[in-house]
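Researcher: Sequence recovery benchmark, item below. Answer with residues only.
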């Protein structure tokens, strides 16, 4: 019996340090890959055609890849194994899309350029997020932290602070599409907040270059205030941010689209990060991760 061909694709997740929402309006953002938090996708032949659900980033990505390869008539099944919690601002939809596109191309033994991969991932993200800035797909495709400006491009950033970032999951599903719509509906009332968020991204970039944790931390605290004023935070995220700030974190903020999802807190070292992670779990975080910065 012939062994059945299996196509495999992987992708990692991401976290936004600064610039969610303001990045949609052309301000710069800084985001980090989370290389140990991964999605793996497997594609196999199947008897029946794939059911496409346009609210699902997996099927929209597979469809985009099949159409690109002119193989929409092929029956395949797709399986995902993911350590990335969905709808928590950790780039799950972009990571799932990238892993799925890679798996489809692998299944058909087709070469896949990074440009085509990013274009197809953003095509799937447009369905999931409506008007994505492209930040999520770009960070899930990057091995280093990046500074990203919509329509202009990105640059790799070397972050070497000897510090740690605690990521804490509120356990509440974020709603990026609704949050982006909420900001858009504020029209010009959103502009001062977005402008301030843009300035804070610049301040964090300067803080990273100068290895100045207090500059970065203070800018994170202010960014959280602005995101809350924009109406995209949540009571659970506000609570965890307040806990982190009052227990010695250098700074803390919500991260990602918001209305749920994760918060991030900057800590001086691993020991402080581990202690804070436990406290955040006691205060309601359903999961925590620690990233070296
Ligand atoms: C979502 O992870 C980040 C947002 O800025 C949306 C986007 O960049 O498309 C909220």
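Model:
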């Amino acid at each position: 019996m012939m062994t059945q061909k299996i196509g495999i694709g992987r992708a990692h997740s991401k976290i936004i340090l600064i610039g969610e929402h303001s990045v949609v309006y052309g301000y710069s953002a800084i985001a980090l890959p989370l290389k140990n938090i991964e999605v793996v996708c497997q594609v196999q032949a199947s008897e029946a055609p794939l059911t496409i659900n346009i609210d699902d980033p997996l099927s929209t990505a597979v469809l985009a890849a099949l159409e690109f390869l002119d193989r929409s008539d092929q029956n395949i099944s797709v399986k995902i194994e993911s350590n990335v919690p969905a709808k928590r601002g950790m780039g799950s939809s972009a990571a799932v899309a990238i892993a799925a596109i890679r798996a489809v191309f692998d299944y058909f033994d087709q070469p896949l350029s990074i440009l085509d991969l990013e274009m197809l991932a953003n095509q799937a993200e447009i369905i999931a997020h409506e008007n994505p800035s492209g930040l999520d797909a770009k960070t899930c495709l990057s091995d280093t932290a990046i500074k990203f400006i919509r329509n202009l491009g990105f640059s790799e950033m070397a972050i070497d602070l000897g510090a740690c970032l605690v990521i804490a999951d509120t356990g509440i599903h974020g709603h990026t599409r609704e949050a982006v719509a909420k900001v858009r509906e504020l029209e010009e009332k959103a502009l001062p907040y977005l402008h301030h968020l843009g300035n804070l991204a610049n301040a964090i970039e300067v803080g990273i270059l100068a290895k100045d944790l207090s500059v970065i931390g203070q800018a994170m605290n202010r960014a959280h205030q602005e995101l809350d004023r924009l109406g995209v935070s949540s009571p659970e995220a506000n609570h965890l941010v307040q806990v982190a700030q009052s227990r010695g974190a250098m700074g803390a903020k919500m991260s990602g689209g918001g209305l749920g999802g994760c918060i991030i807190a900057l800590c001086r070292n691993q020991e402080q990060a581990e202690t804070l992670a436990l406290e955040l779990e006691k205060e309601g975080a359903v999961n925590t991760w620690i990233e070296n910065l």
